[in-house]
Amino acid sequence: MNTVLEHRNWRYATKKFDPAKKVSDADLETLLEATRLSASSYGLQPYHVFVITDSEIREQLKPASWGQTQITDASHVIVFANVTDFGEELVDDYLANVSETRNIPTDGLQGYSDFMKSKLMDLPADVKSQWSAKQVYIAFSNLMQAAAELKIDTCPMEGFEADKYNEILGLTEKNLNAAVVLPIGYRSEEDATQHLPKVRKSKEELFTHI
Fold this sequence. Notes:
With 210 residues, the protein is of the alpha+beta class. The chain contains nine helices and four strands, in the order ααβααβαααβαβα. The radius of gyration is 19 Å and the shape is globular.
């Protein structure tokens, strides 16, 4: 089987993790670097990623996650939080990074700065939040697929109470909102779902070539 497809057929939404098996520091660093290298609109990366290992915090998050055991049994819990509102500093900070990384004078980036600000700054706050949440899912998907390549299990989760996460992790005061959660680790032999065939739409249903 094509290696790209093999990884995607191997992975599944792990329902039961083996709490005794931990992701190594080296593999975790690889996953986080894959996340950092993800694409985002304009390259702005309007989100922050929290890597949670603290058992007490995870016990607090579990009831806010509908009691799902992945939160406490997985090796790590990754919380992706989108920026809920922003001003020109989002663009300015990014272009300062561009200037330093690529050795380009900031004056040479003014046109791009003006363009981005013209597209983003006048958006209503709720639309800004929706836009930044969309960017989260690009990075989230990159982490999940990188994990599959390393044969590290994951469970993408939207089944949680974002307001409770925001409170427990102190996100609101940081202008952040918990958008999606990804426990990572290794599947338990007792997880029966690992043996089930994938259920997906057929190519004919899903794709249209024009």
